[in-house]
Write a structure and sequence with these properties.
CATH superfamily of the largest domain: Response regulator
Structural class: alpha/beta
Shape: globular
Largest sheet: 7 strands, mixed
Strand content: 15-25%
Oligomer: single chain
Length: 383
């Protein structure tokens, strides 16, 4: 009788442990970022921001008592690998929701997998218009489209005296999409378009493109690439005595990193960014920006990564809000439905989704903030 009581007690205790384990079960979030390859610098910063957000959320008790577990995959800056990471995360790791995949070509490669498995993804960086207009109801983008960015810049065209513009952009959806939208906007503002040059994502010698742009005689060069390639462009433009001012688009260059890597060649360049860590009080939600910056500093991460790392922070907080709104349900269908109703105070402004794309298959698009800064005398200056 005593043994029977002990067995019953052990069984009951085991049941409680199992129940407790189920209650405290982690919620997996799949993350696909370029941790190696041409875009590695940016992808690692986004992953760092995501980790900090998950850590902060978990430290505060998680979401409805559940801890967030990031499952991070390296898409190697390659579209084929990006699609493979999505499939592994969904099929092998059983993630009900994803964040990714940095570059537009990488995100576009992932999108068919989202459709196939009906898994939602928060897009934290990519800007190509095709992402939210192609009829994928599992896409929720918190970064601005190239069209939004171009429209935000439009009021500055005349005040900055842009009369003839040239372009230099990566030969992918990110670069070509930006070039297309800015060309359209500039023409509408009466600006003459000169040379429109493209480059490989990993190209290191841009002398031929810069020579054509210099010969065009424009006053402004719009450049779309990542921070590492831009460093080379700035140095080579200085060597070739290119006098036109350079304005970067896409928000994925770190002015602090450019100052460190390009030195004097960075002076005089302008940059469209989506977060201003140099002026945290200038953003819509300064308290959120300061919390993110404190976490970044506390982790002793490179200050130059703040302008990219916030994307991962905002992305994870957006997913956490959807998980909370889903009322404890952690299946993909419930999370997809909940994402449509989220309202998040993000580093890059208020996050909520409007519908874009064909009726019945709309994607979600948030409307974030866009800022212009300049590097002058080795410092970032507000414009």
């Amino acid at each position: 009788m005593e043994r029977s009581f002990l067995n019953a007690l052990l069984c009951a205790t085991g049941a409680l442990v199992m129940a407790g384990g189920a209650l405290a079960q982690d919620v997996k979030i799949g993350v696909s970022q370029p941790l190696t390859g041409a875009f590695a610098a940016d992808g690692n910063y986004v992953a760092d921001g995501a980790k900090l957000a998950a850590e902060a959320i978990n430290k505060a008790g998680g979401v409805d008592g559940k801890q967030l577990q990031l499952v991070i995959e390296d898409n190697k800056s390659n579209p084929t690998e990006a699609a493979a990471t999505a499939e592994r995360l969904i099929v092998q790791d059983k993630v009900p929701v994803m964040m990714g995949a940095w570059g537009s070509s990488l995100t576009l490669a992932v999108m068919p997998k989202l459709m196939e498995y009906k898994v939602p993804m928060v897009v934290e960086t990519s800007s190509s218009g095709k992402i939210t207009t192609s009829g994928n109801p599992y896409i929720f983008r918190i970064s601005p489209t190239s069209e939004m960015e171009a429209k935000a810049f439009a009021p500055l065209v005349k005040t900055m005296g842009v009369k003839k513009a040239d372009f230099l952009a990566t030969n992918d959806d990110f670069g070509k999409g930006s070039m297309q939208e800015f060309t359209k906007m500039l023409k509408a503002e009466g600006v003459t378009i000169g040379a429109s040059e493209t480059m490989g994502e990993d190209a290191t010698d841009l002398s031929a493109q810069l020579a054509k742009i210099k010969a065009s005689g424009g006053d402004t060069i719009f450049v779309t690439t990542d921070v590492e390639q831009l460093t080379l462009i700035l140095k080579q433009a200085k060597d070739q005595q290119v006098t036109a001012r350079i304005i970067t688009t896409g928000g994925s260059v770190s002015p602090d990193q450019l100052i460190e890597q390009a030195g004097d060649a960075a002076n005089g360049s302008y940059h469209l960014v989506f977060f201003t860590p140099w002026f945290p009080d200038a953003v819509k939600n300064p308290e959120v920006a300061k919390e993110f910056m404190a976490a970044w500093k506390g982790a002793k991460l490179d200050v130059g990564g703040l302008t990219e790392g916030f994307r991962g922070w905002d992305g994870v907080y957006t997913i956490a809000a959807a998980l909370k709104d889903a009322g404890g349900k952690v299946d993909s269908a419930s999370i997809t439905k909940a994402l449509w109703g989220v309202h998040v105070k993000g580093v890059n402004g208020d996050i909520a989704f409007i519908k874009q794309g064909p009726a019945g298959k709309e994607s979600g698009q948030s409307v974030p903030s866009v800022y212009l800064v300049k590097i002058d005398g080795g410092k970032v200056v507000k414009q």
